Each structure stands twice: as C-alpha cells, then as structure tokens.
Amino acid sequence: MLIAIYVVKTNLELEITMSRVIEKEEEEAAKHLEAIMMRASQEGIDCEISAPHSEEPYRDIVDAAAKSRADVIIMGRHGRTGLPRLMMGSVAARVIGHAPCNVLVIPPDAKVECRNILMATDGSGFSEAAAREAIGIAKKCESALIVVSVAWNDAEVSAVENNVRKIVDLAKADGVQAEGRTLIGKPYEAIVATTKQRHADLIIVGSHGRTGLKRLLMGSVTERVIGHSETAVLVVKA
Q1: Potential cystine with 204: which of 69, 119, 145, 151 (Cβ 3.0-4.6 Å)?
Q2: Domains of the chain
C-alpha cells in the first residue's frame, strides 16, 4: 500500500487574506496526487492520497505514518537552506527527527537501484540498527555493500577499523558481498566523496535522534550527508 500526502502549508491569516493563493496550491496538490495515484495504478499498486492543510507539515506527515504503521517515509529533498548546520529543508529535518519509522530522502534526479549500497557507521547503537537494515536490503537486492567509517585523526583509526570489521563480518556471514573502508577527515565529506567514487546509489545511516534544537533534529553528520549528497539517503531509526 502506498499513501501519498501533500501538505498545503497555511494558517488562519493566510486562509483569510490569501485565499486565492491557497486555492492555487490546492489545485497543484490535487494534480500532483492524481498523477501519483494514476502511476501507482498502472503498476498495480494500491494508493491512497490526501492533501491536508497545516501550519506544521511535518506533524501531518509523521502522524499519517504512525496511523498507517508505515515502514518507511519517502521524501524529496528541496536543496540547501544556506545555513551551515541545517543543510536541507526544515520539514525533512523535522520529519526525520520525529518519524516513527525509517525515512528515505531522495535528492533531485537521484535513482535508487540498490546495486551498490554504502553504509556509514560510527560504532554507536544507532549504527548497529542501520547495519542490520543495510545487510537486510543488500541481501534482498543482491547488492554489494560498502561499509565506511571515518576517523577524525590517526589516534581513532584502530577503533574505527574495528567498527567496520564487525559489520563486514556480519554481512559476509549472512551471504552479502561486503567490503570495508576506513577513512580520515570530516565524516560527511568523506562519506559523500566515497559514495561518488564507488558509484553507490543508496547511503544508509543511523539517526542519532533529536538534539534539542528546534530545527535541527538529528546528528549534524547525517544532516550534512543528506544535504550534500546527490544520492538517496535512508535514515534508520533505532
């Protein structure tokens, strides 16, 4: 089952003073959702659509996912905001921070074919959840799995290598073709660069949850990977 939701962002003041603008967006939402439903029907997929009004679109998206017990939320990335730590739209950031399930963020023109999957780990419990998901997807899709971890300096290399080795061993034990890479540098830059070099079409990372900041609701490495990558990113919720 596919549930497509297009949230029309509005508030009482806009409803009163800019009703025509709201009507136009409603028309665009209806057209967009009908196109999705038609395409789903052509593929033999059941599809439900909705276009609620909301001051905080992320809440409607998260609530819809919870109500339907969705396995994954799929969102497009609208690009960068220009803020140094918030590198994607605030709606996507908040959805990831509050979502009850995994979230797949797809940048413009990206294709998810699961031929080469890159999984980034920092050795945390969040990364363990991401590793299980990555191995499961790679096994189902018969994908190659590249496990990457990034050390800030030489002193961290040994621990980072150990993190990578554990996941590679788990993957191979489950029949998944896997290799590990230990890198040194800024984590998000190294992850994005390796994704390009290895032609990965999906990055899998773990969510570190909320930071307490109103608009930044996950670890900055994950957020910057999403903002800079030309590849789809699956954020796994522990």
Answers
A1: 119
A2: 1-55 (no CATH), 59-238 (3.40.50.12370)
